[in-house]
Automatic annotation (TrEMBL):
The gene is tagD2_2. It comes from the Bacteria. The keyword Membrane does not apply. Keywords: Nucleotidyltransferase, Transferase. This is Glycerol-3-phosphate cytidylyltransferase. Transmembrane segments: none annotated. Residues 5-123 form the Cytidyltransferase-like domain. One of its GO terms (molecular function) is nucleotidyltransferase activity.
Length: 129
């Protein structure tokens, strides 16, 4: 079967994340998600409200997701693709072009983001109430 992989923080899990994971699962038979650890998010310059263990447990509970692995560094994607026999790497088009180097190892797909929602937007609303 066809294996898809994606990576992300998935903080404050919301409909944009869910729609992406649904579309990714529809592209193949197995969906693996690399969830960014808290340490890696610090490297990305991203502050998260929800700790890694909880973000990973939530993503793992989504029916479209078959496996969750920790995303600890920028450099693990090629190893993950090889080890897990990945056919397609896919991610939202906010990353368009950034992962084209993976084309040597698998298909690379950038998908439309869901408009009008993001974890940072939710955070702003929460802090402003
Ligand atoms: N996403 C989306 N629509 C939104 C918000 C997010 O489709 N409204 C997608 C993003 O494009 C991404 C995934 O949901 O594919 C996870 O989003 P983030 O948690 O913001 O991921 P990010 O922090 O960008 O991490 O190595 C890759 C990075 O770890 C990606």
């Amino acid at each position: 079967g066809k294996t898809i992989i994606t990576y992300g923080t998935f903080d404050l899990f919301h409909i944009g994340h869910l729609k992406l994971l649904k579309r990714l699962k529809e592209m193949g038979d197995r969906l693996i998600v690399g969830v960014s650890t808290d340490e890696f998010n610090a490297l990305k310059g991203k502050r998260t409200l929800i700790p890694y263990e909880q973000r990973a447990e939530i993503v793992g509970a989504i029916k479209y997701v078959d496996e969750v692995i920790p995303e600890k560094s920028w450099d693990q994607k090629i190893d993950d693709i090889r080890r897990l026999n990945v056919d397609v790497f896919a991610i939202g088009n906010d990353w368009a072009g950034k992962f084209d180097f993976l084309k040597e190892y698998c298909e690379v797909v950038y998908l439309e983001r869901t408009k009008g929602i993001s974890s940072s937007q939710l955070k702003n609303v929460l802090t402003s109430v």
